[in-house]
Write a structure and sequence with these properties.
The structure holds 2 protein chains of 2 kinds. By secondary structure, chain A is mainly β. Chain A has no helices and 11 strands. The relative contact order of chain A is 0.33. Chain B contains no helices and 12 strands. The chains are: A mainly beta, B mainly beta.
């Protein structure tokens, strides 16, 4: 059973460009979480999605950030008009539909904004 | 607000020694889960151990065990017979049974095991 997949692993963008981060949950998992980790800090919750629904986006910045988890395909975290402060590691985690208390993490995407 | 505090930014011990990492949390919920995650230099988040708050017995996983003190809201991690591969950042995390069950993380403790 493959683990949570994230791509790309590293992403470099110039200020003002768009960043798209992808997450494929573990097989059978229908819950996806996105977290952001700034340098030397712990992970901070951004958004929680189920298939075709955003359940909790209380940790998402109000502007420039959006997330989706379509019926088919990976979950996407989209950052428009990136700024240097968006440079961070972005982690995706998934959990199964019945037992949501344990989350399994992907390897993360390290975003660098030049 | 729910918070998790790790008061030890860095720790260092010799190989084969025992080390204890501290974690305290704050919540008004009575049912919740606590976790320790390990983040080695590869930055992958690896689940080390999990504790359910309604269980009195402390969780153990091989060389890893916890000391869960619910009244004190304390959840420390003990690593016995430490190995070089245990070198990593360790994060304490918390989630409730309610709502989104999002994880709340502490700031982390950087643990170095010296040969």
């Amino acid at each position: 059973n493959a683990g949570v997949m994230q791509n790309p692993r590293h992403l470099v963008r110039r200020r003002g460009q768009e960043a798209r981060l992808r997450c494929s949950p573990m097989k059978g998992h229908s819950h996806v979480y996105w977290y952001r980790q700034l340098p030397e800090e712990g992970l901070k919750f951004m958004v929680y999605l189920q298939k075709e629904n955003i359940i909790d986006e209380s940790g998402m910045p109000k502007e420039r950030f959006s997330a989706e988890f379509p019926k088919e395909g990976p979950s996407i975290l989209r950052i428009q008009q990136v700024v240097r402060g968006d440079s961070a590691a972005y982690f995706c985690a998934s959990s199964p539909p019945i037992r949501t208390d344990t989350q399994y993490f992907g390897p993360g995407t390290r975003l660098t904004v030049l | 607000a729910q918070t998790v505090t790790q008061s030890q930014p860095e720790m260092s011990v010799q190989e084969a020694e025992t080390v204890t990492l501290s974690c305290t949390y704050d919540t008004s919920e009575s049912n919740y889960y606590l976790f320790w995650y390990k983040q080695p230099p590869s930055r992958q988040m690896i689940l080390v151990i999990r504790q359910e708050a309604y269980k009195q017995q402390n969780a153990t996983e091989n060389r890893f065990s916890v000391n869960f003190q619910k009244a004190a809201k304390s959840f420390s991690l003990k690593i016995s017979d430490s190995q070089l591969g245990d070198t990593a950042m360790y994060f304490c995390a918390f989630t409730t049974f309610q709502g989104a069950q999002k994880l709340v993380f502490g700031q982390g403790t950087r643990l170095t095991i010296n040969p």
